[in-house]
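Hi everyone, sorry if this is the wrong subforum. Our group has a chain we'd like a structural model of before ordering constructs, and none of us has done structure prediction before. Sequence below.
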Amino acid sequence: MSALLKQGRLIIPARKEGEQVKARPCLGDKQAQFEKAGKMSLERYENAYRELAKV
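Answer:
Right subforum, don't worry. Here is the predicted structure as tokens:
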């Protein structure tokens, strides 16, 4: 569990075809995690969001 707290980014393990995703626990402040995800998304996809806003 402590490893989940120390990782600084989202890690999505590779899956084989047909393998289902299993939930895993996530500790910490959910609101802070949500805000961080939004910030990272905006940094990464800012131009795409601007283009979508024009539609």
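For your construct planning: The two ends are 43 Å apart (CA to CA). The chain has a mean pLDDT of 81.
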